[in-house]
Q: What sequence folds into this?
């Protein structure tokens, strides 16, 4: 894959997530996907995303930065959303927060096989006034 088709596939993946089109998730994510070193599999990955949407009903994935060097893709995602209750161990309780996620993907045969992700928790803490 050249960088542009990989970026196009990634944007289609984000669109799938934003539409919560779980039936098409397997078009983008491999059956044996891992997330932060844990072997989730497609069913576990889907369950994680479905839980994310239950916890954050207005969740929307937006790529702020994108870098492709196939088979790798790196993205800086930005979120402005309103988590219910606790989020990342923080009492957000319906407050709107903005934060970023830095995520790295490894693609194989046109699908994501590995995800490594870090969320900027300090940005959320600063907005909630709980920064240390």
A:
């Amino acid at each position: 894959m050249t960088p542009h088709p990989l970026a196009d596939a990634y944007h289609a993946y984000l669109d799938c997530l934003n539409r919560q089109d779980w039936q098409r998730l397997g078009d983008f994510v491999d059956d044996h996907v891992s997330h932060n070193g844990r072997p989730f599999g497609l069913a576990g990955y889907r369950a994680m995303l479905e839980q994310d949407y239950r916890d954050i009903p207005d969740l929307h994935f937006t790529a702020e930065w994108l870098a492709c060097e196939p088979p790798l893709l790196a993205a800086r995602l930005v979120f402005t959303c309103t988590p219910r209750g606790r989020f990342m161990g923080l009492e957000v309780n319906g407050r709107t927060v903005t934060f970023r996620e830095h995520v790295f993907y490894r693609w194989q045969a046109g699908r994501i096989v590995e995800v490594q992700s870090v969320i900027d928790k300090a940005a959320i803490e600063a907005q909630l006034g709980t920064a240390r």
Remarks:
- The mean pLDDT is 94.
- The longest helix spans residues 3-18.
- Residues 59 and 81 are 6 Å apart (CA to CA).
- Helices lie at 3-18, 41-55, 121-128.
